[in-house]
C-alpha cells in the first residue's frame, strides 16, 4: 500500500499510529477532513489479515464519514479509530483507556463512538479518560438500540423516496423488497416494511435470524448467494460492504438498490454501472446516515424526537440527489459525490 499516495490523493489531514506497550494497544486513528467541524467516526476493534488492511480500513471509513456528515448537513468531519485485535483477544480496559488518553490529547479534533467489535463497555472505558466519546452507558444512541432503529428508519424512508423516483409512487404495499442481512438494522428495516405491507425476501448467514423473519414478517427465505438474482422492486443490502461489483451487478433483477450497508459499491464506477443498467442506487452514505444523526444529536444534548425529525430529512436529501442526477444525466452516486464535494468547498 502506498500510504502517502492515499493520504495525498484523498486529502487526509492526519494519520496517527498508536502504541501503548503496557496494555498492548495497537491502533490507528485516521482524520480525514475537519472543514465542517471535528472529525467524528466510531472505533472499530477488529482482527485484520495484515496491518496494511487495518490502516486502509481506517482511511476508507474516515473518508466515508466526512461524506456522510457533509451530505447530512452535520457540523462534523470524518474520522475513524481502528484498534487491531489479535486472534482470540478480547477488549481490555487498560488498552481502551490508553486510547482514551490519546483521543483526549487531540483536544476534540476527533470524537469516537461504537463500531464493529466495540460496545458500550469499551466506550465507558474510553470515557474514563476523555469526554470526546459517544455511545456510553445511558446515552441517547446506546439506549434501546436507538441508533440501529434510526438507521433503519432512514433506510426505509430512502426506499420510499426511491420507489417514488422509480415508479412515481412511494407506496410500499404490494412491493417486493429483498433484504440481505437481518442483524440490528436489517431486523428493524424488515419490521417497518412488513408493517407497511411490503413482501419480503430475506437472507442471513444465521438461520435463526432468517427463521425469525419468516415467522414474524411472513418473509420468504432465500439462500445467501441467491439474494442478488431475486425478482424484486428493491434490493436492500444490510450486511457487508463491497456487494455491488462486477459479479453481482449482472445478476440484479431489481429496479432499486437501497440499504444500510456501508461502502456498498466495490468501486466508484459500479455506481455508474448500475445507472447504465437502469437500476436506481440510493447512495449508501446518504441513506444510512440515521446513526450518525443520532450521534450528532447526542453530542448537542438534543432529544430522540429531534434526532428522528433530522432522520426524516434523509428523504429530502435523496430527492435532491435524484433531481441533480436527472438534470445532469449522471448516476446518483456521482451526483451525491458532487453535491458533497460542493459542501466541503
Ligand atoms: N448499526 C447502525 O446503526 C449502522 C449505521 C450505518 C451503517 N450500518 C451498516 O449497516 C450494515 C448492518 O449493520 P448492523 O448494525 O445491522 O450489523 P449486524 O452485525 O448487527 O448485522 C449484520 C448481519 O448481516 C449478516 N451477514 C453477514 N454476511 C452476510 C452475507 N454474506 N449474507 C447474508 N447475511 C450476512 C450477519 O449474519 C448479521 O446478522 C453494516 O454494513 C453496517 O456498517 C449500520
UniProtKB/TrEMBL annotation:
Q: Which SUPFAM superfamilies match?
A: Aminoacid dehydrogenase-like, N-terminal domain, NAD(P)-binding Rossmann-fold domains
GO molecular-function annotation terms? nucleotide binding; oxidoreductase activity, acting on the CH-NH2 group of donors, NAD or NADP as acceptor
Positions the record marks as coiled coil are: none
Q: Does the keyword S-adenosyl-L-methionine apply?
A: no
Q: Which residues form the Glutamate/phenylalanine/leucine/valine/L-tryptophan dehydrogenase C-terminal domain?
A: 144-345
Listed A to Z, the keywords are: NAD, Nucleotide-binding, Oxidoreductase
Binding locations of NAD(+)? 181-186
Give me any GO biological process, just one.
Answer: amino acid metabolic process
Looking up PANTHER family in the UniProt record yields: LEUCINE DEHYDROGENASE, VALINE DEHYDROGENASE
Q: So what family is this one in? A: Belongs to the Glu/Leu/Phe/Val dehydrogenases family.
Write the protein's name: Leucine dehydrogenase
Amino acid at each position: 500500500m502506498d500510504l502517502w499516495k492515499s493520504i495525498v490523493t484523498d486529502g487526509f489531514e492526519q494519520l496517527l499510529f498508536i502504541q501503548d506497550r503496557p496494555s498492548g494497544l495497537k491502533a490507528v486513528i485516521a482524520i480525514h477532513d475537519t472543514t465542517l467541524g471535528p472529525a467524528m467516526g466510531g472505533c472499530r476493534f477488529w482482527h485484520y489479515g495484515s496491518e496494511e488492511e487495518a490502516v486502509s480500513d481506517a482511511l476508507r471509513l474516515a473518508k466515508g464519514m466526512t461524506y456522510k456528515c457533509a451530505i447530512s448537513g452535520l457540523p462534523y468531519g470524518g474520522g475513524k479509530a481502528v484498534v487491531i485485535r489479535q486472534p482470540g483477544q478480547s477488549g481490555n480496559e487498560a488498552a481502551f483507556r490508553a486510547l482514551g488518553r490519546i483521543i483526549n490529547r487531540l483536544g476534540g479534533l476527533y470524537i469516537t463512538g461504537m463500531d464493529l467489535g466495540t460496545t458500550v463497555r469499551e466506550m465507558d472505558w474510553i470515557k474514563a479518560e476523555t469526554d470526546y466519546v459517544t455511545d456510553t452507558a445511558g446515552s441517547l444512541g446506546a439506549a434501546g438500540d436507538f441508533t440501529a432503529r434510526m438507521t433503519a428508519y432512514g433506510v426505509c424512508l430512502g426506499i420510499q423516496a426511491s420507489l417514488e423516483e422509480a415508479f412515481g409512487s412511494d407506496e410500499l404495499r404490494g412491493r417486493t423488497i429483498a433484504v440481505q442481512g437481518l442483524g440490528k438494522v436489517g431486523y428493524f428495516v424488515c419490521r417497518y416494511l412488513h408493517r407497511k405491507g411490503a413482501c419480503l425476501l430475506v437472507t442471513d448467514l444465521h438461520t435463526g435470524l432468517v427463521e425469525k423473519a419468516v415467522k414474524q414478517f411472513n418473509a420468504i427465505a432465500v439462500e445467501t448467494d441467491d439474494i442478488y438474482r431475486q425478482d424484486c422492486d428493491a434490493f436492500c443490502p444490510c450486511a457487508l460492504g463491497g456487494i455491488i461489483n462486477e459479479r453481482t451487478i449482472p445478476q440484479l433483477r431489481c429496479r432499486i438498490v437501497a440499504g444500510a450497508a456501508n461502502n456498498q459499491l466495490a468501486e466508484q464506477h459500479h455506481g455508474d454501472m448500475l445507472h447504465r443498467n437502469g437500476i436506481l442506487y440510493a447512495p449508501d452514505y446518504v441513506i444510512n446516515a440515521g446513526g450518525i444523526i443520532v450521534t450528532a444529536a447526542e453530542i448537542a444534548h438534543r432529544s430522540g424526537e429531534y434526532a428522528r425529525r433530522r432522520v426524516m430529512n434523509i428523504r429530502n436529501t435523496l430527492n435532491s440527489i435524484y433531481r441533480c442526477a436527472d438534470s445532469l444525466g449522471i448516476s446518483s452516486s456521482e451526483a451525491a459525490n458532487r453535491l458533497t464535494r460542493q459542501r466541503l468547498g
